[in-house]
Design goal:
The complex is a heterodimer. By secondary structure, chain A is of the alpha+beta class. Chain A folds into two domains: 8-56 and 171-294, no CATH class; 63-155, Alpha-Beta Plaits (2-Layer Sandwich). Helices cover 73% and strands 8% of the residues of chain A. Chain A has ten helices and four strands; from the N terminus they run H-H-E-H-E-H-H-E-H-E-H-H-H-H. Chain A has a four-stranded antiparallel sheet. Chain A is elongated and about 100 Å long. In chain A, 28% of the residues are buried. Helix content of chain B is 33%, strand content 26%. Chain B has helices spanning 41-48, 74-78, 96-106, 111-124, 140-152, 170-185, 197-202, and strands at 2-10, 16-25, 30-34, 56-61, 64-65, 81-84, 158-162, 189-193, 206-211, 214-219. In chain B, the strands form two sheets. Chain B has a six-stranded mixed sheet with strand order 6-7-8-3-9-10, with helices on both faces. A four-stranded antiparallel sheet of chain B has the order 2-1-4-5, with helices on one face. In chain B, a hairpin with a 2-residue loop joins strand 9 (206-211) and strand 10. In chain B, helix 3 (96-106) crosses helix 4 (111-124) and helix 5 (140-152) runs parallel beside helix 6 (170-185). Chain B is globular, with a radius of gyration of 17 Å. The two termini of chain B are 18 Å apart. In chain B, 41% of the residues are buried. Chains A and B meet through helix 1 and helix 8 of A and helix 2 and helix 3 of B.
Chain lengths: 297, 220
């Protein structure tokens, strides 16, 4: 077992030595891998932020239940009880007096409200469903419509559907881009390993002659691919995080103009791990293919 | 330990390097394979080291028939052999110690033990004080001694050498000879392919004489 670990340790050291032996080449290829990985990763993070922003917009993915104007506290309590039972997500009650007060405070509406002889607004419930899929929202709205004393249920489902479709198209585009660029990354690693194999021809020949197995000879190249890809992923992560940091403030201001308090963020820890992990996996794949082809026969 | 039986080696271009060659070499024996250039000495070396396979016949080394040996088993056989090449096959981007450490890293020996064994092998060939030197800075004789240290560091019971004194001056060749003698004295089996007649005169060892691929003499 000691031999097994020491051979893997030696292969890792050899891979690191090969990477550091030509720093300029290594840096250039890491820049290429970093940019290749950063493009879909940035798209991924951007879509996540967009979803967060949309979810945080007032009125979006919310269902408003307007009661009949002449309903009293009993009916409101009944609706509250049904909501508690259905547990669709977050919900709260907006009393008609509070709604009028809010309307009065709205710019340009003060004079209009002052001209009213009585409060025309109904009591209302606002529901923010935990599951924001359009079909779920519509099903909930349909249920609410069937409840007694509910005069009107408002759901901006068109907006919700547009957003959902936009996010789906965005995810699909990012996925396609990721597949294309993954192919490019595998090709870059394949070629780097091919050059490494040519450069190490003497060492490979001698190692074979003195008893090295195929696994012993292939292993450093595979570790090289993993290390190469992981470092490229790390570089991509720094790029995405750096760009995110630069753009966070102006995008946050833009979001605020739409009434959203959502603060854009860079890659989450799980996304960061995935970027580095995917880089390492693609590097390994490129190395594996290169080794399989170049040592065939 | 070595049994070569009716071995013929024919290359794809039609050249017949060995024709119906048979001999046996016992454990602890020291044998020279000699002959003029093109006689088939290096072919015997390459067949015994499982670098090539015979066209027909059988070669048994350490109980294994090399003609039928599966590809995956060859590295494990080579670990039991010490191979010394005419062109040494040193790695010039590694220092002397790292060259000797290579076979030990292949078998997965822990680093501390590997360094201890590599230094012992270098000491045996008189290169311990030059362990940090790059091979390019060594003389031809020193490079060959380094190749011997690398070949013996795994403590093989069989040493195969192909023209180990070619291109060496007589003093360096003599040092190499003394090193081989010391290994022979501790029971290592040696098979040395050489065209250098003065070697055989200094040993009372067995000489297998090849000519145009045929074994024409086998005497002590």
């Amino acid at each position: 077992m000691n031999g097994f670990f020491s051979q893997h340790y030696a292969a890792q050291k050899s891979a690191a030595r090969r990477l550091s032996s030509s720093p300029l080449n290594t840096l250039l290829s890491l820049i290429v891998i970093g940019i290749v990985l950063a493009l879909p990763a940035a798209g991924w993070v951007m879509l996540d932020n967009l979803q967060g922003f949309a979810g945080n917009l007032p009125g979006v993915q919310q269902i408003s239940l307007f009661m009949m104007v002449d309903t009293g506290e009993k009916e409101a309590a009944e609706i509250g009880s049904r909501l508690r039972e259905a547990n669709p997500g977050k919900w709260w009650f907006v009393a008609r007096d509070d709604a009028l007060k809010h309307l009065t405070e709205t710019e340009g509406m003060g004079d209009v409200v002052a001209g009213l002889t009585k409060n025309p607004l109904p009591d209302a419930f606002v529901v923010e469903p935990g599951d924001s899929r359009p079909e779920v929202l519509e099903r909930l709205a349909e249920t609410f419509r069937s409840w007694p004393a509910v005069a009107h249920v408002q759901l901006d489902s068109a907006w919700s559907r547009r957003l959902d479709l936009f996010l789906r198209i965005g995810r699909l585009a990012v996925s396609l881009l990721a597949v294309l660029l993954a192919g490019a990354l595998v090709a870059v690693t394949f070629n780097t390993i091919r050059l490494q194999i040519l450069a190490q021809a003497a060492e490979i020949e001698v190692s074979r002659l003195i008893g090295a197995t195929d696994a012993f000879i292939h292993r450093p190249f595979q570790y090289f691919g993993v290390l190469h890809g992981a470092l490229g992923g790390l570089f991509a992560l720094l790029l995405v995080a750096g760009i995110g940091r630069i753009l966070a403030a102006p995008i946050g201001e833009l979001f605020a103009l739409y009434g959203s308090g959502f603060i854009p963020s860079g890659p989450s820890p799980s996304q960061a791990g995935a970027i580095v992990g995917i880089g390492a996996a693609l590097g390994w794949l490129g190395a594996r293919i290169s080794v399989a082809i170049h040592f065939r026969g | 330990m070595i049994s070569v039986s009716a071995v013929t080696k024919r290359y794809p271009q039609g050249l017949e390097a060995l024709k119906d060659v048979s001999f046996e070499i016992e454990d602890g024996e020291m044998a020279f394979i000699t002959g003029h250039s093109g006689a088939g000495k290096s072919t015997v070396f390459r067949l015994l080291a499982a670098i090539e396979r015979p066209t027909s016949g059988s070669i048994v080394v350490d109980g294994q028939n090399l003609a039928a040996l599966r590809r995956g088993a060859i590295p494990y056989l080579r670990r039991k052999l010490g191979l010394i090449f005419q062109d040494q096959k040193l790695l010039f981007d590694r220092n002397v110690l790292d060259n000797v450490l290579l076979p030990l890293s292949i078998v997965g020996l822990p680093a501390r033990e590997a360094v201890r064994r590599a230094r012992a092998a270098l000491d045996k060939v008189g290169l311990l004080e030059r362990e940090r030197v790059q091979p390019i800075a060594l003389s031809g004789g020193e490079q060959q001694r380094l190749a011997i240290a690398r070949a013996v560091v795994n403590r093989p019971s069989l040493l195969l050498a192909d023209e180990p004194t070619a291109n060496l001056d007589s003093e360096s060749a003599s040092q190499i000879l003394d090193i081989f003698r010391s290994f022979h004295q501790v029971g290592v089996t040696l098979v040395i392919a050489t065209h250098d007649a003065q070697w055989m005169a200094r040993f009372s060892s067995r000489v297998l004489r090849l000519e145009r691929g045929r074994l024409i003499g086998d005497n002590t």
